[in-house]
Amino acid sequence: QDQERREAELAELHALKQKFLSAQQWKTDCRAHAKWEHYLSCDGSPDPTVLQEINTFMSLWREDQNEDVQLVMEKGEQVLNLIEKLQFLLLDTPPSEITEKEAAQYQESILELQDLLHQKYNGATEHLLKTANMYEDSDTGNMQAVIKDKNVTFCIWANLKKKVRFKNHVFHDAQHGFDLPKSLAVSSVAVRILHTRYDHVSPLWLRCQSVPKLEVLDSEELTQHARDNAEEPEEEENKAREEPRVPAEEETCSDERKSAVISFKEATNSIAGANERAEEAIEKKSEILDVPSQVQDPPMQEEVNEKEEARSEESTVDLQQFFPVGGVYHIHALHLPPQVKQFNDWSMVELLDGGLEAYPYPPAEPEDATHQPVQITLGLPDNVVYFGDPVLARWDPAGQHWRTDGISNVTYRTQDRSVTFEMAAFYTVALLQAAHLNLPYQGWELQPTGVDEALLTVTAVFTAVQIQIKGNQCMLSSVVVEEKDVLSHMTGKWTSPLDLRAVLKEAGVNIFPGEHSHKYVSVEKKAPLAEVRAYQQMALAGSAFAFAQSKWNQEAGQDQVVFKVREHLKADSVNDKDWSLYMFDGQKAQKLKITEASEAFSEELEDDSEFHSTLYHMLKDFASTEAIDKVERASFLFIDAVYQLLLATRVLAYS
């Protein structure tokens, strides 16, 4: 009899879960419709997924000699939109609908578009510097210009007069500034601070991190999937460590950074080869160390190398633990190009083959020579949140990572929203924030607010975030930090759960655990079976039931999740006694006798209740007919949006 009831319950749940498949099909149809609409529009913009179209677009822009900075910035916005579309497709398209070859093609197109955009910014900078006299400052006689839009800010200064007393400058329109060493103050040099509000410097995988793909499976498949995960966690972790998220083969770009793209399959196959190459490198290194040195004996040389490697590793930023917030600042010293000269009605300028050329600082001199540092002040953007002082780091193009060495005397001014620091040379820098400082959550609640509407509230360590859900979209309702509303420019705008996750993270409010977050946050890891099925069934019931955090969740062990539930059909105030506690392991649900106020955790069943094979049927035992009707009528788009947000926040594992 129990077996018959279990089969009947699973069959009924399976019928409800068809709504997830309907949502997937709807998204597939939307992608196809968008592609068709783009084809019909004939607006001249390329389809970034069609290789021929995107290559033609890039070739035409490369050949376009117009380097006017305003035109470059306008075209740049189009390029950024194309990159955004490709990133969205990489994150949103199910693996069954995108081949490895297509994914690799999209990644390569993203990197080529990024590289082309930066080349054009350099061309626009050179064009501005050739006409430096047009931007001459009346007080100093030097060129100074600030040109900006919503994506990028150019701050350019040219040393036309070469006077030591004008070695520092503040770009008042951007609140950026610098103080140069005396040797540069008398040189034919220009300084550019290029602030991009996006990050095209960090590895591509950082921006294409998706919520772990946990597909909606049939009951038996999901059970087996979870069992496999539970049996082989170490193997999975080792595999994750070995396989790069976005695999790479090196190619040199014009801005001397190495970009990377090969297919996932090629990357996996190359692991063995990489290990062999690493072993060969170690052997070669050993051979080199065995050669006697005229300066130091081999053991001392080896010790010095080990210390240098240790120092290098210490200053390398772990991008699983930190992420850039507020964009990237490209700070360069440049050779001042030949200036435009007027002859009657003619404008003449000497053309150089090399294009924009970096001014070497510090100059190539004996190693023991000392050079003054460059002092930089950056105004911090007001549309992002920094929880405490961020980490200032410079990009290392050779190692392809962010580093903290080479930067000193860092001073943050919270009131002015600025940071001042010294650099040994000119670097590309960014401000990085700890990825997990808002974890674990202090509390969370999901409650229905209307027909196919709900409100998800997540109370994190430093912030409280409210997200409204309506149909297939969601909206940032409020972000509160230290009892003040912040990010008002982002609230009140409807978007997809995927886009909301991206914009919140870019704004510094990262409340979304990553694949490796369990290594950095002290929480008990929950079994995938219990966690995923709980999110699915919470989403299915989310139109009529409210769910919230229980303090007993961490006491219940890895295999079970515990949370508070109550029927919620009206927006009336609710007492704590209206909540009940439920425990679920993915295959068995039960209502607990204990409350949040109980002194100890107990798995004892509530009186007059019994076990069920699904959370949905457990809730059904105590629900009104109106609530169950509301659950059955809920839109598949609303259910999918709730499920996506629960998967993104993983409230049952990180609170």
Summarize the structure.
With 655 residues, this protein is an alpha+beta fold. The chain is 36% helix and 22% strand. Among the domains are: 44-120; 136-204 and 315-341 and 354-363 and 372-434, Chondroitinase Ac, Chain A, domain 3 (Sandwich); 443-649, no CATH class.
Features:
single chain; 655 residues; alpha+beta; Chondroitinase Ac, Chain A, domain 3; ten-stranded antiparallel beta sheet; 15 helices; 26 strands; 22% strand
Describe the structure.
The protein is an alpha+beta fold. Among the domains are: 44-120; 136-204 and 315-341 and 354-363 and 372-434, Chondroitinase Ac, Chain A, domain 3; 443-649, no CATH class. It has 15 helices and 26 strands. The strands form five sheets. Strands 17, 18, 19, 20, 21, 22, 23, 24, 25 and 26 form a ten-stranded antiparallel β-sheet that branches. The protein has a seven-stranded antiparallel β-sheet with strand order 1-2-5-8-16-12-13, covered by helices on one side. A five-stranded antiparallel β-sheet has the order 3-4-11-15-14, with no helix packed on it. Strand 19 (463-470) and strand 20 (473-481) form a beta hairpin. The longest helix has 40 residues, at 2-41. The protein is elongated and about 100 Å long. The protein starts with a helix and ends in a 6-residue tail after the last helix. The relative contact order is 0.10. Residues 214-301 have low confidence and may be disordered.
